[in-house]
Amino acid sequence: MGDVEVVAPNLKRRLSGVTSTVIQLVPEQRRQGVGIAVLGPGLPDDLPRISWFQLPGLLVRPRRRRFRIWHARRNTEMLAGLVLRHVFRAPLRLVFTSAAQRHHTGYTRWLMRRMDRIVTTSSRSAAFLQLPHVIIPHGVDLDRFHPPSDAERDWSTSGLPGRYGLGCFGRIRAQKGTDLLVDALISLLPRYPEWTAAIFGRTTAHNQGFTDALKARIEASGLSSRIVFMGEVADVKPWLRRVTLCVAPSRNEGFGLTPLEAMASQTAVVASDAGAYRDLVEDDVTGQVVPAGDGDALTQAIETYLADPGRAEAHGRAGLERARSRFGLAGEARALSEVYEELWAQR
Hints:
It is elongated, with a radius of gyration of 22 Å. Helix 1 (17-31) packs across helix 12, helix 5 packs across helix 10 and helix 8 (258-264) packs across helix 11 (309-326). By secondary structure, it is α/β, with parallel strands linked by helices. 41% of the residues are buried. The two termini are 23 Å apart. The protein has two domains: 6-139 and 328-345, Rossmann fold, CATH 3.40.50; 155-326, Glycogen Phosphorylase B (Rossmann fold). The protein has helices at residues 17-31, 75-86, 106-112, 123-126, 178-188, 208-221, 237-242, 258-264, 277-280, 295-306, 309-326, 329-345; strands at residues 6-9, 36-39, 68-72, 92-98, 117-120, 134-135, 164-169, 195-200, 227-231, 245-248, 268-272, 287-290.
């Protein structure tokens, strides 16, 4: 415990975008010399962690610092940090990262006003904050997400028909815009026989009827072999390298890493104007951004790539350069370290 200088709590058992952020970011922070450990359920065993039984150790200063930093990403985690500091007198400073793109409740605003630093992940999220903050966008692991070899980009290795692949990655539900994508594909694919679409992600019991209705529409259109629901696969990274175009049609998002992972995989992106997508995708350079919920605009943007696969390849190369220069995971970790060091330097 004496070496733990930053605690990253994860007080939610189910996998979420916040959990994924912690899983990816903490190892990079450790590599950069931050004495960070996670706390909570639903995290891989190989992450540096403290157990619930070690919580009393937070009441004692770490060896090299006057206090620890508690880096929260949810309301429950902000509240827990406040209880530790004010009730149990733990030597803590509190950092909160907000990715929400909505007006915060009065309760959330009350919690945030008691944080020592606020970090937000995009310009859109920042617009909903009325407190001093710093924007630090999420980064992508450029070792795990990387360009394809010629063999990896060969769509014939997918076992699906056609010459080019279009991929969509995320849970199957209306919020993710899966229905908008299916409508676009039913309209476009009969005119572009070299393309096949693969839709990745799990369907919860609550959304099973939604998914079944989409599959029925695809069946009625005669495109069942070319619009394929792949389910939840163990590793999407090879598929991000295999497809020529990634579509992220969400109606709303918190941040949304999929376009960034696609860009790092040298894949062009069509994305809705949701989450941080407009900050990530450079229009007509690395892909296209369309209004969220606008099915006609989504269809038109996708068609520009189906009609010209060379354009998709060029935008994929530009996306790789943008991901490497601006959105590496190491850069996110360094920016957070600057926030921590600023707090530690204060008297």
